[in-house]
């Protein structure tokens, strides 16, 4: 065995930790590095310990490879400096085992100048970081150890960083999954809420229609047809979807203001009203708006209703608005209102043909009505003519549902009147119809009025 350049002046037994406190954390976490020197000659171990006495490391020593292996099994060793020539197990074999058990530990081998075979083995089998010839140069050895430990720290940092990135990626993945799921849940909840709101909106319209129907059934059929036409005009003018819906609802509820009138006035023809009654009747747009104002969703509908009797030339009521100052949806409802009354007047007589009704609108173009809206009616009339010419539909007995309104008397084949026209079907009615049908069948289809929902879907 070659001798070191410096003799050790300490006399500490091998296998003990020297310098300061032992670090169980290892060196990668910021504690002191734990170095293990392995040599069968105590004086070499002393020399090495002495060499690193002032360095910020903790030192372990072992006098055999076996003892060295036992130490790395229980201690967080960062670096080993091992002699090659040892009696029980040579350094190359020892360091190869170390590599096998803990490849992170940096391995440096001390060999004699002439021992080239050991140097080659050290590199090939044990994949040592460096091999150093004996006798070593103190500065070279200190520098080599320092560089090896820097390499060790770098590997540990990279590993920690990779672990951290992996953990963060997993956390991000989990967060994303959770977010996606939350977004899906929230979207579903919003969709459900929208459906509920939509159903609520339709129910509100149905409620008003029901009340108006009780006041004056003729009003409802008229309003339903005007709603179809209004929505079609709005769509043709490319108004936003929401405005189209407002036009439709405003036409349906345009005369809801008469709900507050006594029946005698609600059913009276305008030309038969005296001056006081006419003045009162002219308040219906304001009363309609005031009624709907209490329901937030219907507030914009109320604003349109307020102006559905304004005239383009400023001669209308209640605000005598003129031209573009009249909201476009109100102008649409006004045209639809008049056009349907021309086609379907409350009296059987005086019914205008489509061309006559169009001519009548043309006559009022720029006076009562917005020229652009009148023009659109001429363009779309063919498409909506069938729908607005009738608000009645035929359904089978099986299709009858609660809430439908009969447009004609419902009779059995034997001529028994089960329910008169205008009856709004309730559960008890349906049971009665089914019971009679078993005894005296109802033949053919049943005529009912389209309801608001049917109109909404037909207009889209
Ligand atoms: Fe009106």
From TrEMBL:
Q: Does the keyword Cell division apply?
A: no
Q: Where does the secretion signal sit in this chain?
A: none
Q: Which UniProt keywords apply?
A: Phosphoprotein
For the Response regulatory domain, which residue ranges apply?
34-149
A Pfam family reported for this protein in Swiss-Prot or TrEMBL:
HD_5
Q: What name does UniProt use for this protein?
A: Response regulator
Q: Which InterPro entries match?
A: CheY-like_superfamily, Cyclic_di-GMP/3'3'-cGAMP_PDE, HD/PDEase_dom, HD_GYP_dom, Sig_transdc_resp-reg_receiver
Provide the positions where the record notes the PTM 4-aspartylphosphate.
83
Tell me the domain of life: Bacteria
Keyword Phosphoprotein (UniProt): yes
Fetch the Gene3D superfamilies from UniProt: 3.40.50.2300, Hypothetical protein af1432 (1.10.3210.10)
Supply the PANTHER family for this chain. Answer: CYCLIC DI-GMP PHOSPHODIESTERASE TM_0186-RELATED, TWO-COMPONENT RESPONSE REGULATOR-RELATED
Q: Which CDD domains match?
A: HDc, REC_HupR-like
One GO BP annotation of this record: phosphorelay signal transduction system
Tell me which species this is from. Answer: Candidatus Manganitrophus noduliformans
Q: Which PROSITE patterns match?
A: HD_GYP (PS51832), RESPONSE_REGULATORY (PS50110)
| Region feature Disordered, mapped onto this chain | 1-32
Per UniProt, residues of the HD-GYP domain are: 197-393
């Amino acid at each position: 065995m070659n001798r070191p350049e410096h003799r050790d002046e300490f006399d500490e037994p091998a296998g003990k930790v020297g310098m300061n406190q032992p670090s169980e954390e290892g060196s990668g976490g910021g504690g002191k590095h734990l170095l293990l020197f392995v040599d069968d000659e105590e004086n070499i171990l002393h020399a090495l310990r002495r060499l690193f006495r002032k360095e910020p490391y903790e030192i372990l020593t072992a006098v055999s490879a076996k003892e060295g292996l036992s130490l790395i099994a229980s201690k967080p060793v960062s670096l080993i400096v091992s002699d090659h020539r040892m009696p029980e197990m040579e350094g190359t074999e020892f360091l190869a085992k170390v590599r096998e058990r803990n490849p992170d530990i940096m391995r440096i081998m001390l060999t004699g100048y002439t021992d080239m075979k050991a140097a080659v083995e050290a590199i090939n089998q044990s994949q040592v970081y460096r091999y150093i010839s004996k006798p070593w140069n103190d500065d070279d050895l200190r520098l080599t150890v320092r560089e090896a430990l820097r390499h060790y720290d770098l590997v540990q940092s990279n590993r920690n960083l990779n672990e951290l990135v992996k953990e963060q990626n997993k956390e991000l993945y989990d967060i994303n999954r959770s977010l996606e799921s939350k977004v899906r849940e929230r979207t579903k909840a919003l969709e459900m809420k929208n459906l509920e709101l939509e159903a609520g909106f339709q129910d509100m319209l149905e409620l008003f229609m029901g009340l108006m129907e009780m006041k004056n059934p003729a009003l409802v059929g008229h309003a339903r047809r005007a709603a179809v036409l209004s929505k079609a005009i709005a769509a043709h003018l490319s108004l936003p979807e929401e405005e189209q819906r407002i036009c439709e609802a405003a036409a349906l509820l345009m005369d809801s203001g008469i709900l507050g009138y006594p029946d005698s006035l609600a059913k009276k023809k305008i030309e038969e009203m005296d001056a006081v009654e006419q003045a009162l009747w002219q308040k219906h747009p304001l009363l309609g708006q005031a009624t709907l104002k209490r329901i937030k969703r219907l507030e914009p509908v109320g604003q349109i209703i307020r102006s559905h009797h304004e005239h383009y030339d400023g001669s209308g009521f209640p605000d005598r608005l003129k031209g573009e100052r009249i909201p476009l949806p109100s102008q649409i409802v006004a045209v639809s209102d008049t056009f349907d009354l021309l086609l379907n007047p409350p009296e059987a007589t005086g019914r205008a043909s489509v061309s006559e009704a169009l001519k009548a609108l043309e006559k009022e173009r720029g006076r009562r009505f917005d020229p652009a809206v009148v023009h659109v009616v001429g363009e779309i009339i063919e498409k909506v003519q069938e729908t607005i010419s009738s608000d009645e539909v035929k359904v089978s007995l099986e299709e009858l549902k609660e809430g439908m309104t009969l447009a004609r008397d419902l009779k059995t084949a034997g001529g028994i009147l089960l329910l008169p026209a205008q009856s709004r079907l309730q559960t008890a009615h349906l049971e009665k119809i089914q019971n009679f049908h078993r005894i005296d069948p109802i033949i053919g289809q049943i005529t009912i009025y389209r309801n608001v929902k049917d109109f909404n879907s037909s207009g889209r």
